[in-house]
Amino acid sequence: MKIVFFDTETTGTDVDDTLCQIAWKSHGEEMRAGLFKPAKSVPAEAMAVHHITNKMLADKPAFKDAPEWSEVRNLFENVDTVVVAHNAPFDLGMLKKESIVPANWICTLRVARELDPEAKLSKYNLQYLRYALDIEVEGEAHSADGDVLVLEKLFERLLAKMVAKTGSHELALKEMMAISARPSMLNTFNFGKHVGKKVKEVAQTDRGYLEWLLKSKLENSPEDVDWIYTLKSHLGKLL
């Protein structure tokens, strides 16, 4: 299987947002990246994260009109390719808006959580893991190409742990894909009035908060499947 690491930068996270940059690479190959003009302007909030301005995109083609589109589609949809991203469901959602649906994928965010059953790590976002695990790369954070370099090194760490657990490279990849395909259980609140507390602790002391949060997620953020799964599990509402 060919492993391809990728990342997108976007105009935001709402239903009408799209990508404005994508970068991808395989082991031993050069980075490929491109900037594209989205259907809507990039808001200041997004520019403050990835530093891609509307001026930088003004003369760029839309992704579907660029030669990179067919290149990415042919590579990502190949049955012998496994694409890897951090918080992959988000990036896959952006690709789906561009009519690209990868055949196989791995989410390093979900795999990292799975391989930390005792929740020794307080966070699992890419840049936190970069420094917590002493991953040394030359790449700017929150740029698609910089994040891909970190992603590649993180994947190597996770794969090595999974090979040790399963006994083979092939079984490790299969297990990583299986983990990625299902929602993961979240351990700790990183927002709200219970920030820093374990979800299972709050389930015992403030069940009403979990009920309210689940209702809010279902109504306003149905794509936040990991939190919805976690809340339903603690509330005994899984089918």
How far apart are the first and last residues' alpha carbons, in Å? Answer: 35 Å
**Strand elements, count:** 5
CATH top level of the largest domain is: Alpha Beta
Beta-strand content:
5-15%
Mean pLDDT: 93
Number of helical segments with 4 or more residues: 11
> How much helix is in the residues?
40-55%
What best-fitting shape do the alpha-carbon axes yield? globular
CATH architecture of the largest domain: 2-Layer Sandwich
CATH topology of the largest domain: Nucleotidyltransferase, domain 5
Strand order of the largest sheet: 3-2-1-4-5
| Element order: H for helix, E for strand | EEEHHHEHEHHHHHHH
The CATH homologous superfamily name of the largest domain equals Ribonuclease H-like superfamily/Ribonuclease H
Into how many domains do the coordinates divide? 2
Polypeptide structure, described:
This protein has about 240 residues and is α/β, with parallel strands linked by helices. About 45% of the residues lie in helices and about 10% in strands. The protein contains eleven helices and five strands. The chain has helices at about 45-50, 55, 65-75, 90-95, 110-115, 125-130, 145-165, 170-180, 200-205, 205-220, 225-235; strands spanning about 1-10, 20-25, 30-35, 80-85, 105. Strands 3-2-1-4-5 form a five-stranded mixed β-sheet, with helices on both faces. Strand 2 (about 20-25) and strand 3 (about 30-35) form a beta hairpin. Helix 6 crosses helix 7 (about 145-165) and helix 7 packs across helix 8.
